[in-house]
Every structure is written in C-alpha cells, then in structure tokens.
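Lab notebook, bench 4. Still working through the backlog of constructs that have no structural model yet. Next entry is a single chain of 404 residues. Request: give me the structure tokens for it.
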Amino acid sequence: MISSRFRLLVAALAAAVSAGAAQAQNTTPVLFSFSTVGDSRQDPITYDQASVGATLSGQDAIWLQNTKAFARILRTIQAQKSTMLFFNGDMINGYGWNALGYTSDFVANKISGPTTPASTADVVNSDLLKAYQQYAFWRGLVAPVMETGTYVFPVPGNHETVCKFCPANSDKQKVAKVENEQAYAANMGDLILDNSRFSTLLGTLPQSFNPGPAAGSSPDGLTTDQSKLSYSFDYKGFHFVVINTDPVGAETSAPTNWLAADLAAAKARGAKKLFVFGHKPAYNYNYQKTGVASSSSLDATAATTVKRDAFWTVIEQYGATYFSGHEHVYNISQPKGGAYQVIVGSGGSPFDDKASVPGANPLTDRSYAWATVRVHQDGGVDILGYGFDEHFGPTQLYQQIYLP
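Model written out:
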C-alpha cells in the first residue's frame, strides 16, 4: 500500500514540474548567447526627471539619446559575452517626415513643409537631417560593441518609420512614411546582413537569409519595400526573425503571412528554436496598479486586435518566442499560457510607469533592463532578465526562465 507520505512527495514533485520550467536550469554547455533591448531614444519634452535630472545634458538634448543608461547596458552586454544584440526599435526620437523640406515642431505639435530650404538653418533643422544625425550618434554608441565581438541587429520602431504630425485622411495623426522607411534602410541596411562581419564575429556565415518582401510582392499587401525592415536567418540550427510592426499603410500590425511562411520553412529545415523580434508587443503589460491598460501594443484597437490574434496564433503554432520593446518597461509573460512574450523596451527612454504612480512591480517597472539569452547545445534556452534601477544602482538578475 502506498503511504500518505509517498503520495505527498509525488504530488510535490508533480507540482514542481508543472509550475516550473521557469525554475529549471540547463547544465549542458552554452552554444552561444545573445541579448536584446529596445527604446534608448530620449524625449525632448517629457523626459523622466526622476531618472535623468531636472534638465537633459547638453549632449542628450541635441542627440536625443539616454546615453548614460544605454552605454551602461552596452558595457554590461559586452561583459556578458553576448555574440548578438537585437535592438528592438526606437533608437532615435525621429517621428518627423524625412522628405525634403519638412520640419516638425514637437513643442507646438505641428509640422511645416514642404518648403525649399533657404538657409543653412533650414537644412539643419529639417526632419531629414535630424534623423540622420540621431542615427549617426546611435551607431557611434554601438560601434565599440561591434568591434569587440557582438553583432548588432536593428529592428525598426515607430519612431523610425512613423511621422507624428503628418496629414493623413485630412487629419493630423501618426502615419508611417516611405521616406522614413528609406532613411532607416539607408542608416541600418549595412547591418542586414554584412556577411563578412557576421562570419568574423560569429564564426560562420548566416544561413537561409530571407529578406523582407520587396515592394509589390508582400503576401500581407504591403506596398513599400520591406527588404531591409523585415528579415530572417539561421545560425547554428536556430532561427532568428526581425519584423517591422509599423509598415507604411499597416501601422501597428505584423507581417503575419510572411512570418508564417518563414517560420514554416525554418521548421522544415529542422530549426531547434524560433526567435522573433519586433518593436510593438502583441499584448500590453498593464504596469499600473490602477488597472488602466496601455495602448502600446498590437491590440490597441478593435481592428488591430484581429490582426494581433492572427499574429499570436502563428507564434503559438510554431512555438516561437517573441521579443519586443515600445512599452518602456520590463516584463516577461505567457499571454495565452504557451509562447513567451519578452518586453524589454527599457533601454533608456522615459519610463511608462511614472514616479508619481508606482507600478505593480516596483523592483522592475522603473528599471533600465534587458534580456540575455543563453542557447545550449541540446536546444534548451535560458532567458535571463537583467537591469538596474532608475538611480543607477547595481545590476541585478531579475528573472530566469528555462525553455526546454
């Protein structure tokens, strides 16, 4: 007869197993590791005074970057020996219209143009030149990482592709512009993919590279060239996908049909794990104790919720892990109980969780945070959440999740 003590032991073991792949640890050798974070751009108007001070530094006021926070994250990622860094969008403040003669006024919430520049000041103050300056500063910050063993993969965000004050349908609203997509491709395209640099840093060439669809060939009906905005590749039997979640004409949506075909092909090749990187999260993280939901995700409206559901069905179907930014906060969740969504839009932009309204998780809601992922030889994966608080205290390990 089975003793009651034995039954209790079996029940406890079963509970531990069901509760916690999140607690297990893989002891097989680490094959490689990568890190991911997003949203390092600074805001010229609503910067977080509790974190960066009463005024922006002269440097950050010009280049609109949280240099102190992002530079520290980069240094720590270097120390963690990550061989890849996926930056999940909003590396620049941008938000203008990168066509000739347009100038945005973020204080007055308006845009002027098109005009023919009549002076040097007109050129310097134009949205186009400011975007290129901000890209250049960001590229300068990540250059040392590239030179010391970490390949940087860019992901487009809404601040890269979207114009904040552009007229659309006779109204002023946020719309993606082809000129903004082109400016992103011009400033980031050499990273997608530089085979020589890739092989030098990672020891082998990328396999099965799949550029995003060219103009007119998108299975999702997109009308602009996405070949430098969405892309994928294999590395050591693992599959990596970058998607543009704010393409022209389909803002706040994912290229779901293209993604489904890409993941199906990767599975057919025998990919051990599938990692997808986009700017906007599929599901918002409600960081406020008040229960007020954020609209910072792919379910911001009824129309986008339908598209979000289709996107997440693909993520779940193929057992992918989705990494995102956009919400300026750290959070890891299983929205439907299966696939993980990892939000790391905490690379330096003003915290969504304001100091005056403490969030549901005070330890992490106002932290500069990122995820470092260790990929093991047997295909198992550790996702480790790291960060430091708004006062730039010591770096801490916030969370560890194991995917068998």
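Notes after review: Residues 33-403 form a domain with the Purple Acid Phosphatase; chain A, domain 2 fold (CATH 3.60.21.10). The mean pLDDT is 90. Flag for follow-up if needed.
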